[in-house]
Specification:
The protein is an all-alpha fold. It folds into 2 domains: about 45 residues, no CATH class; about 300 residues, no CATH class. It has 14 helices and 3 strands. Strands 2-1-3 form a 3-stranded mixed β-sheet. A hairpin with an 8-residue loop joins strand 1 and strand 2. Helix 1 packs across helix 2, helix 5 runs antiparallel to helix 6 and helix 6 packs parallel to helix 13. The protein is globular and about 105 Å long. The protein starts with a helix and ends in a 36-residue tail after the last helix. The relative contact order is 0.11.
Length: about 425
Amino acid sequence: MIALCVTALIKIFIIIAALMTAAAYLVLVERWVAAWVQDRLGPNRAGIPLTNIRLWGLGQPIADGVKLIFKEEFVPGHVDKILYTLAPIATFTAAVLIYAVFPFGSLEWTSDRPPIPLGLVPGFDAGLLFIFAVNGVAVYGVILGGWAGNNKYSLFGALRGAAQLIAYEIPLSLAVLALVLAAGSLRVEDVVAQQAHGGVWNVFLHPLAFIVFFVAVTAEAARLPFDLPETEQELVGGYHTEYSGIRLMMYLVSEFLHMITASFLIVILFLGGWHFWGLTGAEEAAPWPIAVLRVAVLLAKVLAVVFFFMLIRWTWLRFRFDQLLALAWQVMVPWGLAQLVFLAFWLEYVQDDPWSGGWVTAWPMAAVNWGLLVAVWFVTALVAAPHYDNRPRRITLPPRRTVVPEADAAVVPQGPRGA
């Protein structure tokens, strides 16, 4: 029991330390990506404190963190102080707690001892359900923060955030339900194991579910072009307008952790998790060199998805709020339903286990799934009303009236009354 508690505490320390370090330095990477996209110099001055060693700006996260920690903790007098403090705590706790069930593989240390799982809570039977239940707690942090700020911009941002998160929870759940139906389990490890054993990643097998999930999880993370709850042009700062200091830092770190969480979920559910062909094997447990390689493969995939998120932020324009909700209810929800209904029909009447033989048995489902993607895309484009029309239009102008100078008005013949 003591060994189990010590192991859990070590894992918690490693996960939290890794998340905080990753959040700090990925912010620096995002600023570099922004500078690269916009053809300018990024942060490259801050280095080792009290020295002239710059190290390509790697000291910038340290400088930013120290500045926020020691910044004056100003609490406006008009806020609800209890909810004002609880809101960022709830958001930060939910952002960190979700990593408890992420699978990193298992380490086979010796042959006479059972494998050591690298995840914090391995084999959790309702892992996927836990992930999305904890992810839903972020809604409460947004609403509490906007309400406690007692500010119209904060309240508008909270209402936008709640509507956005609730709307995109539905297509997100539909995409995950399709994967649960395919894997026959709510365990995250089973979804990864299914992709590893068959060698067929879900992104190739279920492209429609991948697109629905990617769009929905991007909106859940409130990243551009979906950052409507805090758009600075309209709402100053959104639901955290009244926050500063360490409370604001908790909100900002939580938002960045949501992006990292979205990247982890995309990799685990659709990109094979720790699996890579010819490198990591397919067994659940592996000797320590392969276990380390699996963790490296997983993190490399996550960093690639994070980089893609950064490119999206600095290249796409922000949606309008009505466009955001219309995309969820009119496009993503029907697409998610189409994928779920098709998969249920296929597993019931065509193939009950398409993954047993790898690509040999899975290619018919993959081909039909890609055809389904093209079909729903075509139907959506055909049914949806275009938001712009570049065709020339004929405009009928009213008849031109002759303006008569006042000096000549007396000599102008007047028509009959009412003409």
